[in-house]
Amino acid sequence: YLPAFERVVTQARPATVMAAYNKLNGVYAGQHPWLLTTLLRQEWGFDGVAVSDWGAVNDRIAALKAGLDLQMPGNPADDAKIVQAVRDGSLDEAVVDRSAARVRAMAERWRAEPGGFDADAHHALARELAAECAVLLKNDRAVLPIGPDVRTIAVVGPFATEPRFQGGGSSRVNPTRVDVPLEEIGKLAGERTVTTDPEGADLAIVFAGLADADESEGYDRTTVELPDEQVELIRATAAAARRTAVVLSNGGVVSLEGWHDDVDAVLEGWLLGQAGGGAVADLLFGVTGPSGRLAETIPLRLQDTPAYLNFPGEQGTVRYGEGVMVGYRHYESVGRPVRYPFGHGLTYTSFAVGDLAVEATGDDSARARLTVANTGGRYGKHVVQLYVATAAGPVRRPARELRAFTKVALGPGESTTVTFDLDARAFAYWDVAEGRWLVAPGDYTVQIGENASVIVAEKTVELAGEAVARELTLDSTVGEWFAHPAVGPALMDRLTAGMTEEQRARAADHADLLRMVESLPMHQFLGFLPSPLPEETLTGLMALSRRRG
């Protein structure tokens, strides 16, 4: 989970980072020295303000010492505790001064400038961005964009007039205005008839999704299904209209089962903000082409999700048993069918990729080049997704992992060359023993995906990486001794010294016997040998394991 936060902190350089409510390995996040200081500030270089979630501070003194600068909301009783702790010497005044200086610096840096802002320009930008984010999931018979053959449009569903455009709880903001989908559709409909009766309509557009009460902060949904009344509305409309499109508004993934096959098109809008209604109208009529891609998988069942057996945990504890196999990494690694995979999204034109070339640019880096062409008849945007697949290294790797992506805009018949420079992190795994990212020597397959499930081009590159040999002791297992690249062959030579070629061959034929004792500590294995190895031999082999490079 950390790489996503790392990317934001190190590249976007945010002014603040918020500490969560929960504990991590028994320590509250808001007073966790490793999270707030070792990782966030020392490793990632964060120099802004660490702020608590609302009411998330359990022990203000411990939080200050750990690196939490700002408590939300302020609490006079906790302020008094800070003063008392400084006076009695249990809290270094320099710690308080450090946090106060960070808060003061933030206030001075982001002091509001006079003059206000251009609300119209901001709204226009919001409309543009919303259109980029919506994902066209399904478009059978090319019912979208709405063509000249569509003369009557039925717009149904409560979200058509009262749009759901933002989250609940503390994510709620005050919009400067709100675009109403029905009104925006009417503006672009021209001479077409826009009605609310789907019976016999050329196209019915159903606005469905989740209400504020269905998803908010502080509690979790217990299902991924749409409310029953929404499903009934979609199915009834699809039965009455000639063609049906569904526009969804929801913060988290919802299931499409039970109605997906009844409709012709599905536009997943998510929560598109105050200009979402206008953006949806632009997409429906083709003023803008859809180009969003799924940032999460839409499963067939809640039970298929990787965290199903681990979340929400039991007796106050959640075990992150899925490890790195979260999201699409799980579905692709176990071959689990899904409704729509990570990275899926349709456009109003077509694209083709080709001429993929991959070359190593160092021991742990590579460059990938490919061409992208618009092979359809409309202007559009395509998201090029680069995945890496490998079995290199001592840890279990997902079937593939997204390592780079970019969006290109092309007119009909146009093409362009896309280049990805892949650094070590594109190929690395986290090595627990070393406490750092490592690129293992081996083959890495660079894949270009239409989405996480559909690969359209791939090339394999060999990287020298970094061969890491673990330091061995007599407590190390027999398997670790024999797997060591330098020690393993040397140990086998010592054990077979004096044997004839025939005896060596017989020993090789009984390699399965060695597998039976691989998990034993070496000091136990030595007791099974017919003759002991000299102490100087063991000392020399352990010294050999300490040599790097």
TrEMBL record:
<feature type="domain" description="Fibronectin type III-like">
    <location>
        <begin position="382"/>
        <end position="452"/>
    </location>
</feature>
<dbReference type="Pfam" id="PF01915">
    <property type="entry name" value="Glyco_hydro_3_C"/>
</dbReference>
<dbReference type="InterPro" id="IPR013783">
    <property type="entry name" value="Ig-like_fold"/>
</dbReference>
<comment type="function">
    <text>Catalyzes the hydrolysis of a non-reducing terminal alpha-L-arabinopyranosidic linkage in ginsenoside Rb2 (alpha-L-arabinopyranosyl-(1-&gt;6)-alpha-D-glucopyranosyl) to release alpha-D-glucopyranosyl (Rd). It is not able to hydrolyze alpha-L-arabinofuranosyl-(1-&gt;6)-alpha-D-glucopyranosyl (Rc).</text>
</comment>
<dbReference type="Pfam" id="PF00933">
    <property type="entry name" value="Glyco_hydro_3"/>
</dbReference>
<dbReference type="InterPro" id="IPR017853">
    <property type="entry name" value="GH"/>
</dbReference>
<keyword id="KW-0378">Hydrolase</keyword>
<dbReference type="GO" id="GO:0005975">
    <property type="term" value="P:carbohydrate metabolic process"/>
</dbReference>
<dbReference type="InterPro" id="IPR036881">
    <property type="entry name" value="Glyco_hydro_3_C_sf"/>
</dbReference>
<dbReference type="InterPro" id="IPR036962">
    <property type="entry name" value="Glyco_hydro_3_N_sf"/>
</dbReference>
<protein>
    <recommendedName>
        <fullName>Exo-alpha-(1-&gt;6)-L-arabinopyranosidase</fullName>
    </recommendedName>
</protein>
<comment type="similarity">
    <text>Belongs to the glycosyl hydrolase 3 family.</text>
</comment>
<dbReference type="Pfam" id="PF14310">
    <property type="entry name" value="Fn3-like"/>
</dbReference>
<dbReference type="InterPro" id="IPR026891">
    <property type="entry name" value="Fn3-like"/>
</dbReference>
<dbReference type="InterPro" id="IPR002772">
    <property type="entry name" value="Glyco_hydro_3_C"/>
</dbReference>
<dbReference type="InterPro" id="IPR001764">
    <property type="entry name" value="Glyco_hydro_3_N"/>
</dbReference>
<dbReference type="GO" id="GO:0008422">
    <property type="term" value="F:beta-glucosidase activity"/>
</dbReference>
<dbReference type="InterPro" id="IPR050288">
    <property type="entry name" value="Cellulose_deg_GH3"/>
</dbReference>
